[in-house]
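Supplementary Note 3. Input sequence used for the single-chain structure prediction.
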Amino acid sequence: MEELLHYCWKHRLFPLGDMETTGHKTVEVIDPGLHNTNAGPDFFNAKVKIDGTVWVGNVEIHDKASDWFVHGHDRDAHYDNVILHVAGVIDAQARTHSGQLPPQMQLSVPAAVSKQYRELLTIDRYPPCYAIIPRLSRLTVHSWMSALQTERLEQKTAAIKARVADCNGDWEAAYFVTLARNYGFGINGEAFEAWARSVPLSAVAHHRDDLFQTEAIFMGQAGLLEPESIPSRHREEALRDPYFIRLSAEYAYLSHKFGLKPIDYRLWRFLRLRPANFPHIRIAQLANLYYHRQAGLSSLVECETAEQMRQLLKSAVTPYWRTHYGFGTPSAKSEKSLSPASLNLLMINTAIPMLFAYGRHLLNEALCDRAFDFLEQLKAENNHIVRMWQDCGMPVENAGDSQALIQLKAQYCDRKDCLRCRIGYEYLKAKTRTTPPGLPEGEEL
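The predicted structure, written as discrete structure tokens, is reproduced below.
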């Protein structure tokens, strides 16, 4: 497997004994080089001593030497400076575009590494590396968690930058879209993003000092003022509801004034959704947040502590929604504010990534550092992924840790990408094994 050969070369997991080229010249790897995951040779700037002479250049690796020609390297000048061609099976002599014959070396994956890699791919228990986790050093765990945390924020930054581009470079609008999307808390995330993109903030700004008008535009753009959006069992009562009638009339006026078109109300999902998470309640909370000028990026950037950010994102609803979950759907009176757990998730998934992304945009390291500090100040998420890692012995002390472990599962475990994982590396290089839980003493995985 070519990927495993790459791994062995990168981490110098070579078979015991002297290595030599097919021409019987001794090979000593001084520096395997920089792994290239893009087009071109597999490793850049490697340093290899062949028959006493030190060569500096690129290394190409294949399952079979004949793959050199299958991949067209003989017609590509980028491979002219390959100083060593490594293959699991030597079945042909490579030739460069310039006509040179690079030295070739057969490299076999050590049996122990191959066996342990098969274990990672076939063990039923999840994650497959569970047996080695308790044996990892604190330094290994801490450094890998820090890298995963940064990787996750970088990944979210890419999504935010795409929204900024869609919003014609408007970071304030992109923040509003990101905030709205995460108000969907997964189930209605796509619908909330579509809704937020349909809301013309420049038009709403003319009526920002009037919460009723703001709510009328927000509800109307969501398609929730259309009679068909109301379940038939509540429709008759809703159509007689004075608040619904007032909102509908106000939206009719404002939509004509600004040429507004609502999204399709059928985008909203209600099945198995708690009433407190109904789109009506979330949109009412967002309207309140926007009205009080708490939904702006400039306000977010001014937060110097996680607690200030928490207070900024706190929101309530107007009096009507304290006694309703939907039009024509009364409820017991309550503030219907965001729960502490929901606030925590909004900070983790919206505010902090936006702060980090904006810091990257401004080349402001202080904002990026603040994002990391806020993650360390917040409680860890409590979900099945985090609990799974805790059961395996991974420490989870704050939101930074939980975000790192979610990234680990999504980008490495789920993709069986153990060769890029530092825990996978520790598993593959382990010379001895402890007996995993559930197996009789002396048995292997």
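The first strand starts at residue 19 and ends at 20. Confidence is low (pLDDT under 50) at residues 431-445.
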